[in-house]
Design a protein that fits this description.
Layout (H helix, E strand, L loop, with lengths): L13 H17 L7 H14 L6 H12 L2 H22 L2 H12 L5 H16 L2 H19 L3 H18 L4 H10 L3 H28 L13 H15 L4 H18 L8 H10 L2 H19 L2 H10 L4 H20 L2 H19 L3 H16 L6 H10 L3 H4 L4 H15 L6
Helix pairs in contact: 1-2, 2-14, 3-14, 4-7, 4-12, 4-13, 4-14, 5-7, 5-11, 6-7, 6-8, 6-10, 6-11, 7-8, 7-19, 8-10, 8-18, 8-19, 9-17, 9-18, 10-18, 10-21, 11-12, 15-16, 16-17, 16-18, 16-21, 17-18, 18-21
Length: about 425
């Protein structure tokens, strides 16, 4: 827990506030959220973090951010970004996106296409255990459906992000689930059952929401939607590989290799360009990878200065009774995620405090694990500076703020969580 500032310091949260003010402020003032590149706003926030806390020497601050940036979750996430970029570049060049979209639209009535994206996103993310891998696999398909049907790109990619957060929260192989279960000391299957019953109504309402939003849009599809089943194979490999629980890196690398084979054999990718298309895909993810590393640096300084401890203490001091304890764990998880922009890191940090709270007030470990996982996923699915939204925006040339209005699932998930706390009988 950083260097153990027991009191915590509110001022340590200043860099996160500075980022939000600069990034949102520039977008509002100039009427364009591209006016201030996210990386510049994050670098300014990092500069502010460096200027704070004179007690710590500059060299020590460098050591703190090096530990934060070199953390296992950050390195894994960066490698997933680059692998996902390579797959996206190869499968797009091979014609896989067009074929998959056309096949999907010829099988599913177009007005259900966006709801279908959400459901497919749920399946892939539950199977793959990673929201980032899900967004990487489905973002090009979302963009294709948007082009073909005329549905808003923001609505289509929002459906993918919502589906991705469903599985990030529930999957048995998701690092958030593993962290929640390990820190609270409960069985994986018990946490899954408790968690699933809470979020199921949110998922059902989300399916109807996307159907309602896109059901009455006027669109005209071409008579003959051409597709080549060979070009769909890379996506099927990624989908099936995810469903049977193969490691996300192997799935994405395998998908890339098969995409290249199909693209070269079908004449869509000239042999000399096969590595170029992968390289272009990888370089398209450089921004988001660098942003993830800079965010990790900011968070490590915020933690070191006592910012996270301040939030933990603030919530712990206001808890009254068992329902209050569950609500406290939920708010704790949400706030720590808003500060760390990484739901796994947030669970690892908030977990020990949540365990203390649940033991003190008699909260069932599977309930505290569910609250931790649900509310870090709520935060992660909505924050404009989180990897999920930054990645979705990068892959579709949108800004996070264009996608946020349609992210109903995280909001519904939060509502269902609170209803499950306050509508339960005392003995429940």
């Amino acid at each position: 827990m950083g260097n153990g500032h027991e009191k915590g310091r509110a001022v340590a949260l200043l860099p996160i506030g500075v980022f939000l003010v600069i990034f949102l402020g520039a977008g509002i003032v100039f009427g364009d959220f591209y006016a201030m590149p996210a990386i510049v706003a994050f670098l300014i926030a990092l500069f502010v973090a460096f200027m704070q806390n004179r007690e710590l020497k500059f060299e020590e601050k460098i050591k703190v951010i090096a530990r934060g940036a070199g953390e296992e979750n950050i390195i894994t996430m960066s490698l997933i970004f680059l692998s996902a970029g390579g797959f996206s570049g190869a499968v797009t060049a091979a014609g896989g996106v067009d074929s998959t979209v056309n096949l999907g639209l010829s099988l599913i009535p177009a007005q259900f296409a966006v709801s279908g994206l959400f459901v497919i996103g749920c399946f892939i993310s539950v199977s793959m255990g990673t929201s980032m891998g899900t967004i990487a696999a489905l973002a090009p398909i979302a963009a294709g459906i948007s082009e073909k049907t005329g549905f808003s790109m923001a609505v289509c990619i929002a459906a993918v992000v919502c589906g991705a957060m469903f599985g990030d929260n529930l999957s048995m192989i998701s690092d958030t689930t593993i962290a929640a279960v390990k820190t609270q000391g409960c069985e994986m299957r018990d946490k899954f059952k408790a968690n699933f019953l809470i979020v199921l109504p949110a998922a059902v309402i989300t399916v109807f929401y996307f159907w309602a939003v896109t059901g009455n849009v006027n669109y005209s599809l071409p008579e003959n939607l051409e597709y080549n089943l060979w070009e769909v194979i890379p996506y099927l490999v990624v989908l099936i590989g995810a469903l049977i629980g193969i490691n996300v890196f192997l799935v994405l690398v395998g998908g890339t290799v098969i995409s290249l084979a199909v693209g070269v054999a079908g004449g869509n990718i000239p042999l000399p360009e096969m590595f170029t298309v992968v390289g272009e895909g990888v370089t398209s993810m450089y921004d988001i990878t660098v942003i993830s590393i800079i965010v990790a640096c900011i968070v490590s300084l915020v933690r070191e200065y006592g910012g996270i401890q301040f939030i933990l203490n603030l919530i712990k001091s206001r808890i009254r009774g068992k329902k209050g304890a569950e609500a406290g764990i939920a708010l704790l998880a949400l706030f720590v995620d808003l500060c760390t922009a990484n739901n796994t890191v947030a669970i690892v940090m908030a977990g020990p405090i949540a365990k203390e709270i649940s033991t003190e007030y008699g909260v069932d470990p599977k309930r505290s694990a569910s609250m931790l996982d649900i509310y870090t996923s709520v935060g992660q699915g909505l924050i404009p500076y989180g990897a999920q939204l930054l990645s979705a925006a990068t892959l579709t040339a949108l800004t996070p703020f264009e996608i946020i209005p349609y992210l109903v699932y995280p909001v519904l998930m939060a509502a269902c969580g609170f209803l499950s706390i306050f509508l339960r009988r005392r003995g429940g």
